[in-house]
Design a protein that fits this description.
The structure is a homodimer.
Chain A (H helix, E strand, L loop, with lengths): L11 H11 L3 E3 L6 E3 L1 H20 L3 E2 L5 E3 H5 L2 H7 L5 E4 L2 E3 L6 E3 L4 E8 L4 H11 L8 E10 L13 E11 L2 H21 L6 E4 L11 E8 L5 E11 L1 H5 L3 E3 L5 E3 L1 E8 L1 H10 L16 E5 L3 H21 L4 E3 L7 H10 L4 E5 L1 H6 L1 E6 L4 E6 L3 H26 L1 E3 L3 H11 L2 E5 L4 H11 L2 E6 L7 E2 L6 E2 L2 E5 L3
Parallel strand pairs in A: 3-9, 17-18, 17-19, 22-23
Antiparallel strand pairs in A: 1-2, 4-8, 5-8, 6-7, 9-10, 10-16, 11-12, 11-24, 12-13, 13-16, 14-15, 19-20, 20-21, 23-27, 24-27, 25-26
Helix pairs in contact in A: 2-6
Chain lengths: ~500, ~500
């Protein structure tokens, strides 16, 4: 299966595109920039959703659902917000088709024109805050802690499967609070949830930080983010949490009577992660043999392949393996027993390897006689023969070990690719030759940020939250700076 | 809370609308026909999704995701299909907004007109079968058993929250098979899954049947359905499963090489249920005190309310109740302990009663001294005092009893409202005065069906699957008939 598969070293971008297709994760559709997420890819997304949904509920959030379509006038109400999204909006203008009287097929019925155009949501702040106005009168109605799992649409000119698609799936949290402190706490709490998820489930190390003004979410006072590093040295923004201040409550006139009897504007946050995380997962761990999925998110954690000739041998192997399958499942381990007789073991080995199943067990007649079983781990591509009777506990521990190993491996790579530089020449050479994050002093102006971007294609990924104060000089302008920020080329 | 609440007898339709709002299930949005599903309503929908998703996976299906937008030309390809959906399509014509140079706000950018208009999916057969063409070459690629959880849009002129909305949430299964027999088996299997779900989880008795040609899904050869009866005597179609034959595979040219080497068209099914089920749930069980939710779908199955004065008493009651809460949760029972001190017990009682929580436990100081606890059941609005020590097993059994009672109650009502008639006068009188299902002979023609509909507003809900053959005469035309069919006024 790994034949005709481009290696990372030859062409990372081609490797990625081929992997997505060959591992049966997703494909482009005929609709520009919109993808089809195939069952195997979707099952990984379902694993992600399951964990995140539990985390959101454990931090007190409930799910709800708001309309797909947003009146154009809502979007226009908040100036920064509309500036950020107007250029990529899919617009519904009509609500009916009719038979084409002068030819084949159907045409848009010109008589079914909407009075006001509707926008397919690029994000839901406007329609949600317009709704919250009716829900909030008193401090007793606060906080509102809501999340929505939904599809959104941003008409992107250059699309890339999972990473930048016109339609994508995501969750968007939208919360309302009585005080600024509570809203800031919520913003940071959800950033921590995202970092926890990225590191402990996706096995992707992330840096928590704050975006510069230039990179902020349109309408936010502060955008917090987690930034990951891909194997090609490019950074990827994996999740954002926005402190929206009172911008949307002012725009949509959402006030509450506080305990002191005063009418005050509500404080807001929003936060989201999307199917883009699938791209982050792939580009963090996978290799020239295909996808690598961390055990905690793997739809199949262990595949068991019997190696047999004829039904009798299969029966014998199945009898031996059944209690193991049962015991693993009782421990909550997701096991697939692949006894298909229309495919050879070699084909199955290649398939599961390419699809990144963490552990493969294989049992043949000789293993049976010797009381052994073969265990192969996907992350290191090693295999060993172990006593059959120890297989359950071995697998249980190995899954944890693989999870940890993937994280440590990705973290070592990431740490190795944070380079401190103190001059613009050094900066440019590092961005060009080594890649990764470059830690450098910056004078704090958007003008400098944009010039560096123009000259090097590197952007400021974030100002890390746990950043030591350090006196220095901006690499471009030489102006004074109080801390380093992280630059990188990014997805 | 039940104050200012219309009773069912006074105005069923008004009762329904008020209940949806007052129980915090959903509300209409400013976007015509699109609803906001509020957290409590959405949590019931999540319960439904959880059960159905498990059932789909147990019958071998996987989830996937296909694009929201469908090129207009795809929709036009299958003649019946486009006839069925063209009149209610939301159409995307542009992909960008721009600042209004002659005024405020933003306008649609005329230069960003799409070459081909895109339709927001009213259902996904066309885009999915266009995709399946690339997935199916050989009989080894079959069957494909896929489900999608998604939002869809049908521009309805008269909308009703949950029952008929322009945007709704649903699941749509789309399967591909090598033989007609397999596809028919799948169609019926999924109908059985829906009936199982309706009866054993929603506690809503349903009749399984086949639609007449006139009521078929646009593009289907046979539409199977489950039909339920609401408390006002109107029927509600709660789920449909379609045998699509080879229509979509022919339209989208999806062929496979069979074992005999011949190229053949693939056989198809599709099946779906939607947020309409929320309406069915409400109108089956709820009463003049508000919502009634069957225990197996209730987000909160048991609410526990301590009745106390001051923190000391609350502490004492909490100490006593904590082990009970733990024990119930260990049995997988969903418990809410409501110790809010800014609301009085009476307010809480009214709230949970209105929201249909199956069991309410209340514990006060006197109960504590007597070793008792008060148990109230929502379905029958009765309460009793039981020994505190028996509360866990009592609750466990009572949840089952309530589940069964709701089903039996709904079934008795439904069975009471299936009336056999043998003349058109009897038919008209029954439809007008009693309502419910009317079982009558019909000559099998669409003309007769439509005339009866025009004259009485009753439609043929289905030809029941388990229908005895019986020689008779059509109530309208007197022509010979071999079996009775079920008529009703319907949602």
């Amino acid at each position: 299966m790994a034949k005709d598969f481009t290696t990372r070293a030859v062409d990372f971008s081609k490797w990625y595109n081929e992997l997505v297709i060959k591992a049966d994760l997703a494909q482009n559709s005929d609709v520009r920039g919109c993808m089809v997420i195939k069952p195997y890819g979707y099952s990984i997304w379902e694993s992600m959703q399951g964990v995140l949904d539990r985390m959101f509920k454990e931090t007190g959030h409930s799910n709800a659902y708001f309309p797909l379509l947003i009146p154009k006038s809502y979007l226009s109400k908040e100036a920064d917000h509309v500036d950020g999204f107007a250029k990529e909006c899919a617009v519904v203008t009509h609500y009916r088709l009719k038979n084409n009287e002068e030819g084949d097929g159907v045409i848009v019925d010109p008589e079914a024109k909407l009075d006001e155009e509707l926008i397919i949501r690029p994000t839901s702040e406007t329609i949600i805050w317009n709704t919250y106005r009716g829900w909030i009168q008193s401090h007793r109605d606060l906080p509102i802690l809501i999340n929505q799992w939904a599809n959104v649409m941003r008409w992107e000119m250059r699309t890339r499967i999972f990473l930048r698609t016109s339609e994508f799936l995501w969750q968007e949290g939208h919360t309302a609070h009585a005080t600024k402190e509570e809203a800031v706490f919520e913003t940071k709490q959800m950033l921590d949830v995202y970092a926890d998820f990225a590191e402990n489930y996706m096995a992707v190390p992330v840096i928590k930080g704050v975006k510069t003004e230039n990179e902020r979410f349109p309408g936010a006072l502060d955008t917090y983010c987690i930034e990951a590093l891909m194997q090609d040295g490019k950074a990827l923004q994996a999740g954002t949490s926005h402190f929206l201040g009172q911008k949307f409550s002012e725009t949509f006139d959402v006030k509450f009577a506080d305990k002191d009897g005063q009418l005050k504007y509500v404080w807001a946050t929003s936060w989201g992660v999307s199917t883009r995380l699938m791209g982050a997962l792939i580009m963090s761990h996978s290799d020239d043999e295909g996808l690598v999925v961390p055990p905690r998110l793997a739809p199949i954690q262990v595949v068991i392949i019997p190696i047999y000739k004829g039904e009798d041998q299969l029966g014998e192997l199945t009898d031996k393996l059944s209690p193991v399958i049962r015991a693993l499942r009782e421990k909550g381990i997701r096991v697939k027993f692949d006894n298909r007789d229309n495919q050879r073991p070699g084909f199955k080995f290649a398939q599961y390897e390419f699809q990144g199943v963490p552990i493969r067990l294989a049992l043949g007649k000789r293993d049976l006689e010797n009381g052994n079983i073969e265990v192969a781990r996907r992350d290191e591509k090693t295999k060993e023969v172990i006593p059959f009777d120890s297989v359950v506990s071995h697998v249980e521990h190995l899954l944890e070990e693989i999870q940890m190993n993937l994280f440590q491996r990705a973290k070592a790579f990431r740490d190795d690719h944070i380079t401190e530089v103190n001059s613009y020449d050094e900066f440019k050479a590092t961005i060009k030759n080594k890649g990764g994050f470059v830690s450098a002093h910056w004078d704090g102006t958007t003008a400098t940020e944009l010039r560096i971007k123009e000259e090097t294609a590197a952007t400021i990924r974030c100002i890390p939250i746990e950043n030591p104060e350090e006196v220095g000089q901006c690499i471009l302008t030489g102006k004074p700076s109080k801390q380093r920020v992280l630059f990188a080329k990014a997805y």
